Amino acid sequence: MTTNFATPKTSASHKGLEPTAGRSVPGIRAPLPGHSPDGTVDVVLIGHTGQVGGAVLERLGDVRDPAGRPMLALRESINRREHVIGTERGLDVRSRAPGTLAELARRLAGRGRPAVVVDCSADPDLPALYPDWLRAGIGVVTPNKFGFAGNRALYDRIQSAARSGRAPLGYAATVGAGLPVLATLRRLRASGRAPTKITAVVSGTLVQVFGRMHDGALLSEAVAAARDAGCTEPDPLDDLSGKDVARKLRILLREAGQAAEDAEPVIDREPVVEDRWAQEIRGRLDVIEALQRQDARWAARLTAAEQNRQRWIYRAFAEPGRAQVGPATVAADDPFGRLDGSDNRLVLDGIGNGATRVVIEGPGAGIEVTATSVLSDLAEAAASQLLRLAVA
User: Fold this and answer.
1) For burial by CB atoms within 10 Å, which of 58, 165, 216, 313 has the most?
2) In Å, how far are 7, 67, 229, 247 from 366, measured between CA atoms?
């Protein structure tokens, strides 16, 4: 992988470079305090060695302003073990110390330059730090769902901190990857026309699993194929639980204004395989081998559906007083039943006088699609930071 601890004119990879000891490394410079004469925004990338983080890292140099000038300067990358810092002497590669992330707001604010933190981790605890960064005027861009689908008080703190710090906050990739899902909901809500009913398929992994089963594969075979293609979580039981779909529905409801602070709906969740069974085999048996015990049950369900000219999907649904995710049958010629690959589909009903419907459909999963969404948010965040600096 080659990129990007970068200046506008040169770049250097941190692959294969040793910690610096007064050694010069081309393309690395110390941050310039108090301004951004080169028109770039400092970036800290968390999770740079993960699949999405690695794809973002590889493409940071592609983000440019309308005149073709680079907008981003990678200053730090951080994962669970490693902390890489660009300095005037080269790359300082060190073990991640306790407090590295907790001290990030102070460290970035002290440089006096516009900055954005990109969190490409799936760490459920990391979003607790977003409010500190945002209040300090540091932008946050992330595909991490936990800050937006978890504790309501944290969600509200994140939103409030972004407003008070006048800092950009981008999380479009949390639902639908590259699809304009959250932007559409926000525009509808701002116009007073938020949908009252949401029907959605928002798991590309489960689209693939159910599609393969309808093509003749057993459940265990379909999951194995999706895993081998790199489309599942490290533990495929996490995908089959439906918890990730429930998180996405929670985000949709909050963005649509259907999840009031004092009355958030309970989301009923039905997994593909029972939670209790999954817990019993988790960590004790090979997942694919264990799933063979569920093959007959799902084969019978698929046969019955196909005899009735139906197909199984994993659906998210919400309307006033009801929210649920789980397996559902639709007519074989229904657009939801015809989804293929990693496609997602969302139908927003009850807009305005109730007769208007908005449909969003397209690639909703995958490393490159998700990375593109993150980079799009990052480009907007960088432009916002530079504009704020220009008018200050």
Assistant:
1) 313
2) 29, 30, 10, 18
Instruction: Find residue 329's DSSP bridge partners.
Output: 312
Distance spanning both ends of the chain, measured CA to CA: 38
Does the model's pTM come out above 0.90? no
The CA-atom distances, in angstroms, between 65 and each of 38, 74, 241 are: 12, 16, 42
CA distance 384 to 4: 22
pLDDT (tens digit per residue) in 327-373: 999 999 999 999 998 899 999 999 977 678 999 999 988 899 999 99
* Cβ–Cβ under 8 Å, residues 227 and 236: yes
> Domains in the chain, please, with CATH?
41-177+369-391 (3.40.50.720), 181-364 (3.30.360.10)
Q: What is the pLDDT of residues 4-49, one digit of tens each?
A: 554 333 333 343 333 333 333 223 233 333 456 578 999 999 999 9
| C-alpha pair distances (Å), 165 with each of 36, 121, 137, 223, 241 | 19, 23, 5, 44, 37
Q: Is 9 a catalytic residue?
A: no
β-sheet bridge partners, residue 319? 322
